[in-house]
Amino acid sequence: MLEIHDLSVAFSMYGNGREKKWAEVISAMDITVCRGEVVAIIGSSGAGKSLLAHAVLGILPPNARMGGTITIDGEVLTEARKRALRGNTIALVPQSVGYLDPLVRVKGQVVQAARLSGMTRPASHGRQAEVFARYGLDAGVGGRYPHQISGGMAKRVLTATATAGEASLLIADEPTSGLDPEALSHALGHLRELADSGKGVLLITHDITAALSISDRVSICYAGVTLETVSAHAFGRPGALLHPYTRGLWHALPQNGFHPFRGLHLPSRRGAGCPFVRECPQATDPCVTTLPPLTKSGNGDVRCHHA
Fold first, then answer.
1. What's the distance, CA 233 to chain centroid?
2. Which of 38, 149, 225, 238 could disulfide-link 153, Cβ–Cβ 3.0 to 4.6 Å?
3. Phi–psi pair at 169, nearest 5 degrees
4. Maximum CA pair distance of the chain?
5. Which domains does the chain have, with CATH numbers?
6. Residues 6+ positions from 108 with CB-CB distance below 8 Å
7. What is the rounded distance in angstroms from the CA atom of residue 76 to the CA atom of residue 14?
8. Does the global pTM surpass 0.85?
């Protein structure tokens, strides 16, 4: 359904003397999402996860430059096609509650999202009531403005807005942050239900445990580069995780030993080699000079000279 190949995103900036330069934030992202599956993107802050979502939706700022290819059902996503599909075929659960219109009651925003996806007015009102009930939002919440509800409620309204329509691809950017355990379980369960109904779900998160509870596959990203994509079942299996960064993330979790991990700082892409080279215990000269290709492995794909 969704195929992202060799995605790069850079931003123009000006240095001394007003010289224009380009700062590359994403340099080699490769992600595939099929209908009926949840694919999670996991990585530390600054890895480029949210920017990838913005690139798919065509909402990058004007000073951004994008490379690589993005296709939906085999057809390249041009900027014009992104505008045509955004909100109906592709829906976003954004990370920030600032995406809610402060001047419109939250019920109206959910109804409008359903209408934009092609529903009739009566059907959109019915869908609004349905998604409110699913996310534990009582009818009285619908009459409030965004500033009159809590942050957790606002996150649930954002998810309700994105899932109110008939989008076939849902991009959920940190949808579980700020939710209590019960609401988190409901939100994750609904994403899994949407995938099981035939939709594609791209889940962007830093929460590995939450991602593994509903995902079919997991893509690990670092400093704007996809390092490994594996089946969710590969986590916890000895030898199944091939990239040192993926293994480091897994063993850094409290339930897996809480082992210290140097790679958990804000990453930045330096040079032409692997972005993880400075922290990697297996690094050799080729890792410094050459970014390895993303190659097939027993459990998925990996970008490592030593895998």
1. 20
2. 149
3. -130, 125
4. 64
5. 2-89+167-220 (3.40.50.300)
6. none
7. 32
8. yes
